[in-house]
């Protein structure tokens, strides 16, 4: 049943939404590209609809210059509205190259494919299309109260931007989160066309500044100037008016501009705000574009997301039987896409915030790092776009001809790893009385045969009381050491070239729990053992409360680690890692959330580091000097008041100063109420920061799932080694298959002789079927 066309008295809250997904009366708040394109699509799909757009500004007011749209977005426009697509095509400027200028050197990467036009021209095209379709456009007019519109219209589309009044009017329903960031930026323009997308870095006496520039017409370019807040203030921009500020920017980037001026259009310095909403609709009101979400300009245009929102919303309104179902389908379709875009945008934004970290990189690596900053552009697709550029980066990095970055060797003390792949420690909970058995032999042996440079054991416990579960492996008895030697002997004999490392740890307050598949972190139903920790704090509410360790007990535990290290050496391990992450005993000393001590081992970071460093020093002294030793840390607790990024760097520096050969950078699992920001390679920024600021080699972990990710991270200089867990559970021969898929045959990986016949992917079906060459239109006529 459709709602009647006539107006209804306004009330304080919206009435129930229309029961049909084809509303006859639609109100659009905001006349930007997202709002206008939504209006045009709704009217085109149903000419009987009454569609009204409210826009507070005049038709020719616009506060940006150029808009970039992807081929993917243009394809959606072409399919939905050929008239708009044709008009856009007539005005687009296109280019393929990206220029990166840093310290007087320009690097060029091609094959990227951009299309842009002026924002004013885009609005004109959409105005013309709306007028032609019969959309009512009300310029210089504030929209009525959102609650009133929700009463009078079947559908209200809030396209009113990052400062959305609609979103604020229903804040308790949409539950927005607005996050500010550390850079100031300003939108300007130049009256000439760059011949490529241009990034230029200026190292001034006040700090680093950057220019993002691209053409949007035959005689005009967008120019965005960006810098950290403290640089902006030190340079005096906070005291300049619009004209002075514009002239100052033109002077700083005179080389990029060829000495030509910049112009502004009510251009004000601002900070970017990331907008996230828990919900996108309320009754018959729905958010699109910047009102619903924002993504930093450095990975593309907010206009792109808004246009894609409009396409999805219009499609869902046509496809679903009711308005609630349509709005739910719209959000379900768009939310994961937007979340992925926002993760990429956050990575890109933070890369530019921390740009000074990378200034010392070699020129080509710096350019590659910039291009792959969002993790959306990778080594492989960059190689396909521009093999010449990617090859030059590889040569500068030191890759032998035909060798992917992941198959270059890496040296840690006296150990040379033949490639950069690590099988990450994974608890198997399959030991009996701490003794690894046949399962461990097959598990670790299979991964060693699979070609990784380094295979790590699970966390091996230094005492019976230090186990996580009854199924955890240990190195606190001679029998356990003999069982481990059986495994290391197999690896060394059957997988020559693969190193095997042991991770030593103590469960602390996270011990005496069930096997993972019986209830992770849940206490045992019976047979529990007492727990110890830095402070008497249970891991989970209602869990076992550990005893706070006394000074004498700290000494005992340190000696347990030392004894385990001696057994590990005799067992033949090539590398030892000290587990100081994930909330286990040593990690519990490092985090302020789990260490509430008031003695010499609690309080400041220096004091919280004291016991982990004492253990490290004791283990390092017992471990053979020629063999490397690493430390795994949680670089953030993903919880308020936990370890900060600055503290993580300080922790890494401290361990490096005490002789750690590398830091294995993980995150979280320290407190039960953590809120991780999951996503592809989501932990690698922490490894990146530690590598560059602490000056220590790092192992990156966390949702690294493809060989392309590994190549990208290594070549960009964000990590030295990549540790993968779940991919190695899915495919024990992950590294061998990565070599085969890249066509690599060299010293970085070697197929075991019995497996060489399987070194090519099996054929799974016919590949010689001829492709259709002709499509006939109209009725078929048989002769």
Automatic annotation (TrEMBL):
Residues 26-342 form the FAD-binding domain. InterPro entries: Aldolase_TIM (IPR013785), FAD-bd (IPR002938), FAD/NAD-bd_sf (IPR036188), OxRdtase_FMN_N (IPR001155), YqjM-like (IPR044152). It comes from the Bacteria. This is Bifunctional salicylyl-CoA 5-hydroxylase/oxidoreductase. Residues 406-739 form the NADH:flavin oxidoreductase/NADH oxidase N-terminal domain. Residues 9-21 have a biased composition (Low complexity). Coiled coil: none annotated. It comes from Streptomyces thinghirensis. Residues 1-23, 750-783 are annotated as: Disordered.
